[in-house]
Amino acid sequence: MGEGNGTAWAGALSPAARYAETGGASLTWENLTAVLPGSGGRPTKKLLQGLYGYAVPGRIVAIMGPSGSGKSTLLDSLSGRLARNVLQTGKVLLNGKKRRLDFGAVILTRPRLLFLDEPTSGLDSASAFSVIETLRTLAIDGGRTIVSSVHQPSSEVFALFDDLCLLSSGESVYFGDAKLAPQFFAETGFPCPSRRNPSDHFLRCVNSDFDDVATALKGSMKLRAEADLDPLLKYSTTEIRERLVDKYRISDYAMMVRNTIHEISKIEGVMEEAVKGSQATWCKQLRTLTKRSYINMYRDFGYYRLRIIIYVLMAICLGTIYYDVGNGYTAIQARASCGGFVSGFMTFMSIGGFPSFIEEMKVFSLERQNGHYGVAAYIISNFLSSMPFLLTMSWASASITYWMVKFRPGFSYFAFFALNLYGGVSVIESLMMIISALVPNFLMGLILGAGVIGIMMLTSGFFRLLPELPKIFWKYPVSYIVYGSWGLKGAYKNDLLGLEFEPMTPGGEKLTGEFIITNMMGLSISYSKWLDLAMIFILLLAYRITFFFVLKVKEAAAPYLRVAYTRFTVKRLERRASFRESLAMTSLSKRHNAPHPMAMQEGLNSPMQQY
């Protein structure tokens, strides 16, 4: 390293010392590599190659490089959000430990570690400066650790960065104090002109996208004359990049980074308990989530409002088809069919909300990774925010159908009918939420959801009477754990008990509702219809609890499943020559630590992934 580099931290706290003093969150990465295995015989692509670096409280780390250099991939790798088909090796340590940090499942948190992907993109220079200056204030005054990618900052913005991670084709061109970067380039033979923006100079040195154009213009007399003055014109960008990468690997700058990582790893950092003092209360999480979810549901026309319109139109159609069915013998089948349609097909229509559930789960997954709130708060807030819409949908359609068909008169009977519909719709909503948490896309969820609801309808007792269902599996336990059988039994009891119907032949004895339910439908009337309704709401609670455990198990099992998938993929691809070549790290100097084998998958999941 050049003269004066050894005293770079003189008069100021070193990164490790600053970390020890502030007790914030530190992040280090060693020999970090990410590769994308090619499919269909295509070669394996190297995304990141043996990167080293650190981030400590009170400092901003700027990840810079040309397009496609690996900036976003590095951010995703550090934050535990790499795509499933990308394989990662190396160590990513938080506070010196390979573990996952739980910032507390809270919303409106004050996170100690921030990852930002090009926060100044699309802003003018003044706005970009204001954004980075605000981040710098957060870092210094709040003791926060900030890692941000940036494409091409102005000189004023570049001066605000503390540390620079310069990438090119997934390799480290430079990591260290941003103020020392021009000195490193000068030592390598590519000094930054006095009036040139340092970031522009760095990118010009490492961006090899236009080498073909430069080669074609080499015949220009003017360019040959300028090459005598500008060393960048004497070499291709690829040659410059390779010289910079090779120089950095054997430089004291790289050694300082490794020493700093080693010092940070020896300091015991802040644990989760120290962060919980700035968390929002659970009640505040619930209020905030409920309000936000309700506003989103109201503004999205397709979420509930369109479905309410469809339900009302369907209720009108149903009412006109079964208008005033009366108490004749044929009315028995008409009432049963109408009740079966309401309990089965009208609840089945709740599957129309599945696209919105999928989008909501994407938002939930992202915010859970950021540690904004807990699973329980999300599930309860979703239920509370959807309740007004589901009640409106159920009571509006029930009012139209009930009075047009002229089911059994009396408000208590109508209230049961509406609550029965509301419970069935709510159960299906909960079921679709479970499915949305299990499937990766809308199409698979729609197919799976339709299949499950179809099974529920088959075992409800409408298409085949419950006593006639095969006792093994279909009757016990399926018919008891699906809402359809309870909803249909409750609907029949609510409408038929206490009524009398004309006999099949004139002059015969009238048929009572009790006789129809027990003999024609094979159902028991030994318990009240309200127990049937209660069972629907018990199933609703059970489905919501299942949804909770599905989300928790999914979060806990995801790292292990990914490790298993990666090991399986590695074994399968080791037969490819291109993949074996990618396992050999880029030629390292003797100063480098031994690379971690791909099969070990050390640090596969970032400690920042939430649970």
Low-pLDDT stretches are 1-11, 99-108, 270-278, 585-611
For this structure, what is the CATH class of the largest domain? Alpha Beta
Q: How many DSSP E strands?
A: 12
* Helix percentage range: 40-55%
Calculate Rg over CA atoms.
Answer: 33 Å
Task: Decide which structural class fits the backbone.
Answer: alpha/beta
If you consult CATH, what is the topology of the largest domain? Rossmann fold
Q: How do the strands of the widest beta sheet line up side by side? A: 5-6-3-7-8
What's the architecture of the largest domain in CATH terms?
3-Layer(aba) Sandwich
The major sheet is characterized as: 5 strands, mixed
Q: What are the defining features of this structure?
A:
disordered N terminus, 611 residues, disordered C terminus, five-stranded mixed beta sheet, 24 helices, single chain, Rossmann fold, alpha/beta
Report on this model:
- The chain is of the alpha/beta class and 611 residues long.
- The chain has two domains: 16-278 and 574-600, 3-Layer(aba) Sandwich (Rossmann fold); 300-365 and 390-556, no CATH class.
- Helices cover 54% and strands 11% of the residues.
- The protein contains 24 helices and twelve strands.
- The strands form four sheets. The chain has a five-stranded mixed beta sheet, with helices on both faces. Strands 2-1-4 form a three-stranded antiparallel beta sheet, sandwiched between helices. A two-stranded parallel sheet has the order 9-10.
- Helix 3 links the parallel strand 5 and strand 6.
